[in-house]
Amino acid sequence: MFCRTQTTRATIARGSALEMEIRRGKFRRSVFLDTLQDSDIQKKIDHEIRMRDGACKLLAACSQRDQALEAAKSLLTCNTRIMAYMSELQRMKEAQVMQRVARRSDGTRSSDAGPMDDRLPCKGKVAISDLRIPLMWKDTEYFKNKGELHRCAVFCLLQVGGEIHDTDMVMVDRTLTDICFDNTIVFSEASPGFELRVELYSCCSEEDYSAGSAPRKLASKLSSSLGRSAGKKLRVAMDPGACSPTSNAGAATLLLPGPAVAGPKYHLLAHTSLSLSHVQDSFRTHDLSISGNEECSYWVPLYGSVCCRLAAQPHCMTQQMMSGCLKVKQLGGDPPSWRNVYGVLKGTNLFCYHRQEDMEANVEPAFTIAINKETRIRASEKDPHSKAQSICISNQYGGEEVTHTLSTDSREETHRWMEAFWQQFCDMSQWKQCCDDLMKIELPSPRKPALVTSKQGSLYHEIVIDTSDDISTVTDILTRRMQELELRSQLGTSPPWMSLFEESPGGPRTPRLARHSPRSPHRLPHSPLSSLRCPWPGLLSSDASLTSDSDSPCSTSPCSRHRGWAEPLSLSSPRFRPRTLSLDAKLSTLRGRGYGGVLQCSCQPPSSSSLAPIPAQCIPQATLSCSSSTSSNSSSEGSHSPSSLDGTPFSRPSSARRSLRNLRAKLDPRNWLQSQV
Amino acid sequence: MVEWEYNNYLMVVKVLNDFLSKLDSQCSCVLQQRIEIRKLRQGEHLILGFSIGGGIDQDPGQNPFSEDKSDKGIYVTRVTPEGPAEVAGLMMGDKVMQVNGWDMTMVTHDQARKRLTKKNEDVVRLLVTRKSLEQAVKHSMM
User: Fold this and answer.
1) What is the ipTM of this complex?
2) Nearest CA-CA distance, residue B2 and chain A, Å
3) Please, what is the average pLDDT of chain B?
4) Is the CB of A591 inside 8 Å of chain B's CB atoms?
């Protein structure tokens, strides 16, 4: 990076590895050759350190559990990457030292070019996708209806050599039967002897929604105080005298401990190693080595295997390995005639085009000669007619052996072609099954910036709100959050899958909804929140999933929760699942933004108890939940008068409104859901 | 459907019904059928052309197609005319037992929908059970 012939200006972070390297500059450069690779890795380390600092700061600053989990995940990834880069740097330094020592002792110059006898196979792309880890919940766990939902945040770390990627975080609870990671991760430069290490990390996620600021204050205090001590460490380590010349030990002690941050910690739950033998063009199941047991807080009951699709595309299959002009001997006739073609060696074929322009224009080749594992190539003796040696390529087509004879204009050309063929054979023997056919690798689409996703909950989860809680502070916090979301919604566009819920111009897509037969009315416990209560009567149904303890203070119904969160659906990433729970969801709707989504047909008599399916054209009525008019609704079940809309104007386009209405219909457990597929 | 086609269809159904009723008036035939549906591309979406209802998170009492009102399985509630599902032979009222090898008898509604709408699959192979032809006809005429 800092060469004599170049003048560069760069801002260097204080305390960064790079700065230290510069400080040791003269000393270092006298010992080692400043290779490009070195500075490359230094840059990467620097970048990761900055990312790590950012993650630490975020962890200290954030209050929401999900944000903290995401930040902790980034922190872990950054740390792992730093470790990997450091060890790579170490290895490189050691190799350089060895080389230098060897050079000195030999007196000969060991050149960069490796010996020609050892052919190195080409590198390739390795992609892992559709990771799925089955879980094995106990029956009792699965059907447990009350009590806390034990949830863990999990993600995978995938490593090939120095490249480390992480998947997205997935919240796991007993409603999940498999942990699915939708990401496709591509490692671009992998050798055939690669080892893909898959590590599953998990972290327990508690259920408490403490809106109190005490833990937050404490966390920030801790992090700031640690920051100072970490800074002290930095200054100590930066003293050049403390560094040893032959290794980056100084840098290592600086970086590895890192600032210890209070926050969620991920633990290694399981791991496995995949290699070339596991590569296949379809899904395969591999075993997982599980560390940890039931006693750990981060335990998730794994079935013990992981399914994934591991594909590899060696470069010899995707890139042109060799191209040039060739002469192909035409069979028959004496003296033999030669035909000029432009040959391109790619994958398992030698494509012969009439002219070079044809290849660029993507015209079909004149003919194709297979170059695969069964092909035999040899250089024949000098033909008396031609100047150079010719190359004979023999293939077995059916029972017959077909031989093509190629020749070039000069000996060097022939030699180059032979080299290319040998290289191809070497690659094919190393990459084995990957060279039979080109495996498809789907490139991951550019990811949308991950908005903070809300917590995903089960439909039957509940929040208990203590009547003695100071609700106003909660609502204040939540209003602020709502405003945030509102801002974001104005920026975001509706994801493509929203159209699924929109009414198509074609055939009727409105789901038919059967009117739920009225169940016995439920009494709503009185509480200060009753004015904010869900105005949909009877939605606190006697489903076993809700707590049967009727004395508990008011619990929110699932629907109203979903109402509120249905709005941010239009702005979140496509993987956002429309089932969430929170108090703010309810409150946000009741603050006049929302509108009721209770679906019923006004044409249906309220006292009907049959399950006659409603004709498809029935348009669901929207009833608004007015905070004032709940008391009248709380007792009656059957009748619903569409109440007047609240005064606040809607900022949403009507198609989103309809889709949201449909979504609410979906989420109302009293409706028997129907989905169009 | 075109008028004459529909009449033909009804006639075939009647013949079959008669045949079935002759077999055993008591028996309620349960046909298990393997149906292969090739998804149709409509713009960005791959559609199958039918609607499902049911699931372990749904109220089974509201399922108009199930015999046993505690059956929480996935049922076909509507088949789009001329859609891929209809072409493949799926009928309203069929209970979906498996989709591409995945079990559908003990899944939530959302899981079922997801298993049918995987973007990387062009073909879904369903294993369905059908109560009897007669009942299926009755439902389709409703």
Assistant:
1) 0.74
2) 17
3) 82
4) no
